[in-house]
Amino acid sequence: MSQRLFSSLKKGSPTRQFLKDFSYWSFVIASWVPAVIFFKEHVAELHTIKGASMYPFLNTGYDESLTRDVCLVDKRSPTQGLERGMLVSFRSPYHPETLVVKRIIALEGDRVYTHAPYPYPIADIPAGHVWVEGDNADARKTLDSNHYGPIAVNLITGRLTHVLWPWRSRGAIHWEMWKGRTRVVRGWNQGG
Predict the structure, then answer these.
(1) pLDDT tens profile 115-133
(2) Can you give the residue ranges of the Peptidase S26 domain (predicted)?
């Protein structure tokens, strides 16, 4: 029995060639896995925008089709140089396994005049935190800081830089042009 098994592995046999090719390609693929994981965790990744939270800025066809925007998330130094209006991805305070996309409304030291269901009319943003909100005017369609308060900056995993899909919406995200609906007093509590 063992003689039959090893006879199929003789030099030049199709089985031997298959095993040789399989071993080679398995090694090539396995050697790229750490590089892909590193890239996805520390450089960039694609994020699909689900739901109406960021409508109308993202998912512009939310009411008309099932198309979802696919965005590029830059993960290099995600917490450095944050500014009001930036779109960021972060771990949900309610479900840390879930990545969420929202817009930064206020930075540490700012004062925010909140919307329902936040329990207080005013929120002062503490050090190491930001206030994030969805773009949808209907507060029932966005779960944001008006539900869970300011988020810790260390929950932020990346910044959205480009829309890649759908084709008609593709291009760089110009968050600098954003005009918010939430009243923010900038630097209300800076230095003291």
Answers:
(1) 989 999 999 999 999 999 9
(2) 26-113
